From TrEMBL:
Keywords: Oxidoreductase. Coiled coil: none annotated. The keyword Endoplasmic reticulum does not apply. This is Flavin oxidoreductase. It comes from Ornithinibacillus halotolerans.
Amino acid sequence: MDDRLFRNAMGKFATGVTVITTKLGEDVHGMTANAFMSVSLDPKLVLVSVGNKATMKPYITNAGKFAISILNEEQKDLSAYFAGQINETREIDFYWFQEMPTIKEALVNIVCDLHDAVEAGDHTLFLGKVTDIVIRDGEPLAFYEGKYRELEDSKRVK
């Protein structure tokens, strides 16, 4: 099967959009990811998938901790910036949470200690042990078939 067929099939799975961030020394790094999931309640574990060639991989590995910000529907610009789709350097005004950089006004900010890392094909699966969470109200930034989408409330007719 060719790569495009596989990518198109995976694009049929609607996801939210996250920005993964970490701090190593004084350097802050971030990347957009929609490959995120909860794994376990006891202990509280989450997973992010990072390409083995991504700049972010050694930063998470060496920092030993990372943060996840689940973006709201008004944060497309930040998603594009951290995905490398905007070719300019910006000063990001991070929300510092438990000494970790996170995205301000995101629906959720999660701080994790690195629990494990598993190489899987051309990606590394980083398991994070959740140490703290902040939740805010709002609507999610959704991604489907390679595009941002808006969610609609469907009213059931009785």
